[in-house]
From TrEMBL:
It catalyses: K(+)(in) = K(+)(out). Residues 368-392 are annotated as: Disordered. Its main location: membrane. Residues 379-392 have a biased composition (Low complexity). This is Potassium inwardly rectifying channel subfamily J member 8. The record marks N162 as: Role in the control of polyamine-mediated channel gating and in the blocking by intracellular magnesium. It is found in: Membrane. The gene is KCNJ8.
Amino acid sequence: MLARKSIIPEEFSLPALVSRVPRKPVFRDRVNKARFIAKSGACNLAHKNIREQGRFLQDVFTTLVDLKWRFTLVIFTMTFLCSWLLFAMGWWLVAFAHGDLDPNRQPGVEQCVTYVKSFTSAFLFSIEVQVTIGFGGRMITEQCPTAITVLILQNIAGLIINAIMLGCIFMKTAQSHRRAETLIFSRQACIALRNNRLCFMIRVGDLRKSMIIGAVVRLQVVRKTVTPEGEVIPIHQIDVQTESAVTSNSIFLLAPLVICHVIDKDSPLYDLSAMELQCSDLEVIVILEGVVETTGITTQARTSYVTEEIQWGHRFVPIVTEEEGIYSVDYSKFGNTVKVATPRCSARELDEKPSILIQTLQKSELSHQNSLRKRNSMRRNNSMRKANSMRRNNSSLAIPKVQFLAPEGALNMAVT
């Protein structure tokens, strides 16, 4: 028995129609990877299996500065205690060799150090010599040249220890990353149109009035890449050019600035659209360097932006206003953004199809006109409401009319 043929032609059946529909590209979910630079600027990197530990001892001063405060204070205390104990042993040996510790010594023989009769008194004399507290009852005499030599050696050693330890404490308190705490970055980055070009933008600012001299902002894109030869580079750093670097070498960070990177042919973001950006695993690192005006120390502040922190189609709101002849900065709006008309395609597609840019500009113009109309209508409504309220207030304050009514008796008399 023959199969019954369908009334609908095969070219109009559901499987045929589905096969003709152009499929959109399917993007895989991005695997969450560790950040290379944290938002606070700390490097997320661990050094393991370092065999040449002796290299750190060759630069003792830098090693002491890099240590944590608790270790530095312990080393600071132990260094002085050990030096006092060491020279206390030396003073005790000098007194022992001269016979000052002998209880049966002759009373006419003068001591090398007066009133040094035990190790405790030798330790106290060592502290007096090194920190120059003052020679009271214990003092050195001219009887022993060895004691004079020990005195000179302890003074020299004490000066060296003071210079090293005090310099270490000073460098730890004046470290460059302390100044970087008041250099702030916006929590989010933006990609939007600026001067008819697709741009990557961030905002930086300085909370202190003392300026950063010669401030320079550098951008780097870090992502995993594979070379044509098959070599896997887990952390491939690509330098990104900014607008400030094109015109000059530094920025004048007097007020918060929006750092802009034009996404052109040389940019690593040139082929990324809004959809592809959400699925990529890149990380944009921002480095701000400069010299502190008050101390002259070079400081560096860092942060990074992953794909979840990059807003496509947004731009930063202005926060600098002029109030009574003074420019005022409202830091409460430092990271605020506003949504603007931005094509969702990549910068390459935008260069190849200028019509997309024209349509986007037309949409932005229409939205701007609509917003102006809404503002004007709101202003009119507010002015009309104010006028009506003023009329009501005037009517309530107006003097009421007084009517004089004649009595009924007088009215009857007038009639007769």
